[in-house]
Design goal:
Number of helices: 3
CATH class of the largest domain: Mainly Beta
Helix content: 40-55%
Strand content: 15-25%
Distance between the termini: 207 Å
Strand order of the largest sheet: 3-11-10-5-8
Shape: rod-shaped
Number of domains: 2
Largest sheet: 5 strands, mixed
CATH architecture of the largest domain: Sandwich
């Protein structure tokens, strides 16, 4: 009986040892699993940090690219205003767009981050140089505009001066021309009868007139050029028609108008105030009663006039 009890105690002790061992093994497994779980969380956390850092870097780079593209667009507009086509800026913008897409694709971000950052630094340097170039071109343009404005003002002043000089010259020429104009004085008409007798009366009888003898002399003019002059005489009958002479009438130009003359002759002007005479023979019909006007023209300008009466 004692032997049986002892055996039973041995069996119970063995079972208790197995149970405790089993519990220890379970505790060990659970501890290992906890350790593994802790390690997994740490790795995951590290990966999360890496991902967040990567996203931050990508976001910063993309923001830098957007900022750079904004500068490029601004510079393109500035160059366009200056009339300059800058192909390098177009190429830079395309390159940046590709880099931005690559960053957004998230492939090999670390290597691309370094490369893109390097290129961005180079582009910043170039855009900075462009900014300096734009400012220099603007300054040169403004300087040229200012110089051009001064030149235009000087041109206007010069043009005004030339216009004033031309006007003064024209006035002076007109004064000189007026001073050179010959003036016929003492225009006198006498009659030569058929008996070749010269008579001087206030009113002439038509039947007694064979020829008209019209005399005058030029006033003193030291400004007028010495030389040959063509003198036209025009006799207007009472009805307004031009009296015709045996030498044959003709026309000449005076102040843009064609004028019919009675007779012409060439005379050497030497400012001696000598008497010049026209001998007129009427060819058509008898003299009409009334007042006859005598007009004298030299160099195409009217230089004197007179009159006589016929009854």
């Amino acid at each position: 009986m004692a032997s049986t009890t002892e055996n039973q105690n041995k069996q119970d002790g063995s079972k208790k040892g197995l149970f405790i061992g089993f519990i220890i093994i379970l505790l060990g497994i659970n501890g290992y699993q906890y350790y593994l779980s802790t390690q997994d969380k740490k790795v995951i956390q590290e990966k999360v940090v890496v991902i967040e850092e990567k996203n931050t870097e990508n976001t910063q780079l993309i923001a830098s690219i957007d900022s750079m593209q904004s500068v490029i667009r601004t510079q393109q507009e500035e160059y366009e205003k200056l009339g300059i086509e800058k192909k390098e800026l177009v190429e830079l913008n395309e390159k940046l767009e590709k880099q931005k897409r690559a960053l957004q694709a998230d492939a090999g971000y670390k290597r691309k981050y370094v490369n893109v950052q390097k290129q961005l630094d180079e582009m910043k340097s170039m855009l900075s140089e462009n900014g300096g170039e734009i400012e220099k071109i603007k300054k040169d343009r403004d300087d040229m505009f200012a110089a051009n404005t001064v030149l235009k003002e000087e041109k206007v002043k010069l043009s005004d001066s030339i216009t004033q000089i031309a006007a003064k010259t024209t006035v002076l020429e007109q004064k000189v021309k007026l001073a050179q104009k010959l003036i016929a004085l003492n225009v006198k008409t006498t009659v030569i009868t058929k008996k070749n007798k010269e008579i001087d009366e206030l009113i002439y009888k038509a039947k007694s007139i064979d020829k008209l003898n019209i005399k005058f002399s030029y006033a003193d003019n030291k400004v007028a050029e010495i030389g040959a002059r063509v003198i036209y005489i025009r006799i207007l009958e009472p009805d307004g028609n031009t009296l015709t002479d045996a030498s044959g009438p003709g026309t000449f130009n005076s102040e843009g108008q064609e004028i019919t003359y009675t007779q012409k002759q060439e005379h050497l002007f030497d400012n001696s105030q000598k008497t010049i005479a026209f001998l007129i023979t009427k060819t058509e019909g008898a003299y009409k009663p009334g007042k006859y006007l005598v007009e004298l023209y030299t160099d195409g300008d009217k230089c004197g006039e007179g009159s006589f009466m016929v009854k």
